[in-house]
Amino acid sequence: MATGQRIDPYANFTFLVEIDGITRAGFADASGFDTTIDVHEYREGGDNTTMRKLPGPTKYGNITLKRGITDDHELYDWLLGIVRGTPDRRSGSIVINDLTGAEQVRWNFRDAWPTKWSAGEFSAKGNDVAIETLELAHEGLERG
């Protein structure tokens, strides 16, 4: 009897971020890939023992991206455009590569826009990298 082939999970540090074709692989963290479907409960006449449950609206969590502060301010400029009243929604992907760099898993998000940016904290007592955080609101997330 033949044995099954072992399938290992992918490493969580081999990812990159694409936003409208612009690849940014230098993010330290990417989080917030979640989907929640609200549950509507109701009682059906004549059945007093069980609540019926129906799917309601779907909600998507904001995607949070963290990276070291560099001279690249393209993502900050995107936020600045929103602040100044220029709507600019973009689609993108979070891609997990295997250890050889080949793409394995992709999550596609659509109609995203920056809703929060933070320069992080600075301390003269430490030697950590300065981290900026960008939070993206979006209207859909699918695994490709």
Automatic annotation (TrEMBL):
It comes from Kribbella ginsengisoli. It comes from the Bacteria. NCBIfam families: conserved hypothetical phage tail region protein. InterPro entries: CHP02241, Phage_T4_Gp19. This is Phage tail protein. Signal peptide: none annotated.
